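REQUEST ID: PR-0412
SUBMITTED BY: lab tech R.K.
PRIORITY: routine
TASK: structure prediction, single protein chain
INPUT:
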Amino acid sequence: MVRPAVVSNHPLPKGNTDLGPAGADVESVALAELVVRVEDRFGVKFDDDESETLTRMTVGEFCRDVLLRIQPASAH
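STATUS: complete
OUTPUT:
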């Protein structure tokens, strides 16, 4: 189960919020850290060349992508 993160007094982004500059403006270092944490927590893998694709995703798209990666990993 994924628990929502609490980030000081900032509201959590909605599913249709862009991760990149047009929305949440997640910097590349922060996005890389998020990816590493997701990989560690859920046992999935992102390729290094996917970073540009990830910055164009919305929060919801990123979550769906992670879910799709979890399902095949858990099928083993």
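NOTES: The mean pLDDT is 78.
REVIEWED BY: pending
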